[in-house]
Design goal:
It comes from Nocardia halotolerans. The protein has 192 residues and is α+β, with helices and mostly antiparallel strands. Helix content is 19%, strand content 34%. The protein has one domain (43-186): Alpha-Beta Complex (tt1808, chain A), CATH 3.90.1570.10. The protein has three helices and 14 strands. A hairpin with a 2-residue loop joins strand 2 and strand 3 (36-41).
Length: 192
């Protein structure tokens, strides 16, 4: 995935108002990172496939009032006020909102498919999501497609994340909901 920091208006950091006024461009994904405009290429097929299959697994297990959303813009506090997590679980009734607020996110998920995205997902975004009190954050890494991994971050009493070591295979968890995720089913071509 190609990522670049685009020049902000007049060579300075971009404001939320300027970001929100950008024209719609579905060929790329835009975020604000540390005050600067971040331009991401759209996900490659393995990344996109993993997102789609994760959505299916989540939606089949979530309580009725919750839903998994792909690439929905999130409104955060801090120097990175606009992010686009690969997957978020939030209230199913957010239809009239332009973006999901951090206080509505029960789970944020990033899919790391390159070394560059792994650095951003494991470190930068983990710090931002913790600062926004997002209680549950996952990083699914596809760097070794034969051994898809899941690292779980859970907010603790200090406001930082407790990190569960990388797991592979089928993972069972009780938070934020009782879920079973088959990581090996996130990759590979469809068989039926």
């Amino acid at each position: 995935m190609t990522v670049e920091m685009a020049p902000s208006p007049r060579g300075r950091p971009i404001t939320v108002a300027e970001f929100d006024a950008l024209p719609t461009d579905t060929s790329q994904r835009y975020e604000i990172e540390n005050g600067l405009l971040l331009v991401n290429a759209r996900p490659a097929p393995p990344h996109s496939r993993a997102i789609k299959r994760l959505l299916m697994q989540l939606d089949s297990q979530l309580p009725e009032q919750w839903e998994a959303f792909a690439e929905i813009e999130a409104e955060l506090n801090g120097r990175s006020p606009r992010r686009v997590p690969d997957v978020v679980v939030g209230p199913a009734d957010i239809d009239d909102q332009l973006r999901i607020r951090s206080d509505q996110i029960a789970l944020a998920v990033e899919v790391a498919s390159s070394g560059e995205s792994a650095v951003r997902d494991y470190s930068i975004k983990a710090g931002e999501y913790a600062a926004n009190r997002i209680a549950h954050y996952w990083v699914i890494d596809l760097i070794d497609i034969e051994s898809v991994g899941l690292t779980i971050y859970t907010l603790d009493d200090t406001g930082g994340y407790r990190i569960t070591p990388r797991a592979t295979g089928t993972v069972h968890m009780s938070e934020p909901f009782p879920l079973t995720i088959d990581l090996s089913a996130l990759t590979g071509r469809r068989t039926t």
